[in-house]
Design goal:
78 residues, mainly alpha, 0% strand
């Protein structure tokens, strides 16, 4: 577990990207090996400081070739 460890820039990027993609807190916490409580506390801290919005915008700009929806690449039902 990473719970209690200092948050790296990559941790913050992963957190913001998970939020941007509307992943549940439980899923983000599991991916990051952190507790849900720690994640919620960090989200609240970043919201209070105004950093969360900026981090989410940054992840959106840096997102590279996100997978297309199946119907967009010809695998959807017809």
């Amino acid at each position: 577990m990473n719970t209690g460890k200092k948050w790296s820039e990559m941790d913050l990027w992963d957190l913001a990207n998970g939020i941007r993609l509307n992943h549940p807190v439980e899923e983000i916490a599991s991916f990051m090996c952190r507790s849900r409580r720690e994640l919620r506390d960090k989200i609240a801290e970043l919201q209070r400081s105004g950093e969360l919005r900026l981090l989410i915008e940054k992840t959106a700009r840096e997102a590279v070739d996100e997978p297309a929806e199946p119907e967009e690449i010809g695998f959807g039902e017809r």
